[in-house]
């Protein structure tokens, strides 16, 4: 009796790609979780640092990977006697209702509720159209 005859053989096509819409939602939700950490640090009066890596040439001329830290850029800023909160996808500001790009709140503590609303809208699929508009690069 053959060794392969004892096994259950099947033909399958492996799916390795995620749906692009789901991948974009996940990217937005991860960024919003980072912004909540940035807000917590801002409420404590600190900067939130993000770990990263970069390639550098050492003294002997070898290329080595070095761990670095950078300050995470906040999506909220103070202006006009309050705080504006913007939702971003990558480096681009999202148009929330087709024409407005920010939410205004009176104090820094209220920024958390706006970030939570962005997270719920992003995870629920309400921002899919705005994300797809930003994800598509315009041809020059």
Walk me through what this model shows:
The chain has about 140 residues and is α+β, with helices and mostly antiparallel strands. It is about 35% helix and about 25% strand. It has three helices and seven strands, in the order H-E-E-E-E-E-E-E-H-H. It has helices spanning about 20-45, 110-125, 130-135, and strands at about 50-55, 65-70, 75-80, 80-85, 90, 90-95, 105. The strands form three sheets. The protein has a three-stranded antiparallel sheet, with helices on one face. A hairpin with a 2-residue loop joins strand 5 and strand 6. Helix 1 packs antiparallel against helix 2 (about 110-125). The longest helix has 24 residues, at about 20-45. The termini are far apart. The model has no long low-confidence stretch (mean pLDDT about 90).
- Describe the biggest sheet? 3 strands, antiparallel
Q: How many helices does DSSP assign?
A: 3
| N→C terminal distance | 65 Å
Structural class: alpha+beta
Stretches with pLDDT under 50, minimum 5 residues: none
Number of strands: 7
Notable characteristics:
140 residues; extended; alpha+beta
